[in-house]
Amino acid sequence: MSGGPVVLKAEGLSKRFGGLLAVQNVSFSQYAGEILAVIGPNGAGKTTLLNLLSGVYRPTSGRLELLGEDVTEKPIEYRCHLGLGRAFQIVRPFPEMTVHENVTVGALFGKRGKTLSAAREEAYDLLERTGLAPQADKAAHELTLLQDKRLEVARALATQPKVLLLDEVMAGLRPAEAQEAVALVRSVQGSGISVLFIEHIMPVVRDLADRVVVMDQGQVIAEGTYREVTANPQVVAAYLGTEAELHA
Ligand SMILES: Nc1ncnc2c1ncn2[C@@H]1O[C@H](COP(=O)(O)OP(=O)(O)OP(=O)(O)O)[C@@H](O)[C@H]1O
Ligand SMILES: [Mg+2]
C-alpha cells in the first residue's frame, strides 16, 4: 500500500493548550488509497491531531500538506473543497431535520454551484449506500446509535472527499454492528477514498488498517502494520493499566 502519491503529509505538527502539548512534533504520511489507523490511550492527542488535519485548530508549529498542497494556514472550508471529509467522535447532525435533509446539507456544502435537486438525489444515493434509505424521512434525533454513525459517515461522504477522517465512528457499537461499519469503510476505500480513522476497538483496527500510527502523550511512539505495532514493547507499555484492550 505504501508508495504512490501522498494524500496527507504531516511534518512536525504540534498543538499547545496552555501548558499542555497535546500534540507534539507529529510527522506521518498517508498514501493514496490507504486506510491508516491512529490509535493510542485516552488523552494521547488523537482527536487534537484530527482537529489539526481538518483545520479546526491551527498548529502551534509544523506543516500540513493535503493532496500536494500546503494547507497549514487554510480554513476548514478550503480543505473540504480540496477533498477532505470528516466525521466527528461526537455525532452532531441537525436533530430536527430529516436524515435525508442532513445528508443533502453535506452535499450542498461539498461543492459550489450544485442545485438543490442534484444534492437531494446525491444524498439519497448515499443513504442507500450507507444502509440508511429506510430512515430517510425520519428526524435525525430518532436514529439508533448505529444509524447515527452511518449518518455521520454519509454526511462526510456527501462532501465528496478524497480523504476521509473518522473519529471513533465504531464506538459503542455491538460487535455485529461494528462488522457492518467495517464493511462500510471497506466500500468507501473501494470507491477510491483514502481513510484515516481513530479507533479504540482493536479487532476493527486489525481488520481495516493497512498501517497504524500509535500516539501516546502527544507523540507518535510507533508506526507500522497492526502486527508490528502491537508487538512493540513501547506500545504495550503505553497501553498497560488502561482500559483499552491491546490484544483483542
Ligand atoms: N480544547 C482543549 N483545551 C485544552 N486541553 C485540551 C483541549 N482538547 C484536548 N485537550 C487535552 O489534550 C489532550 C489530548 O486530548 P485528545 O482529545 O486529543 O485525546 P484523544 O487521544 O482523542 O483521547 P480519547 O481517546 O479519550 O478520545 C488531553 O489531555 C486533553 O485533555
Ligand atoms: Mg478522541
From TrEMBL:
Gene3D superfamilies noted in UniProt: P-loop containing nucleotide triphosphate hydrolases
Source organism superkingdom: Bacteria
Coiled-coil blocks: none
GO molecular function: ATP binding
The keyword Coiled coil is annotated on this UniProt entry: no
Alphabetical keyword list: ATP-binding, Nucleotide-binding, Transport
Domain ABC transporter: 8-242
PANTHER family (UniProt xref): AMINO ACID ABC TRANSPORTER ATP-BINDING PROTEIN, CONSERVED COMPONENT OF ABC TRANSPORTER FOR NATURAL AMINO ACIDS-RELATED
Protein name: Arginine transport ATP-binding protein ArtM
Annotated organism of origin: Deinococcus xinjiangensis
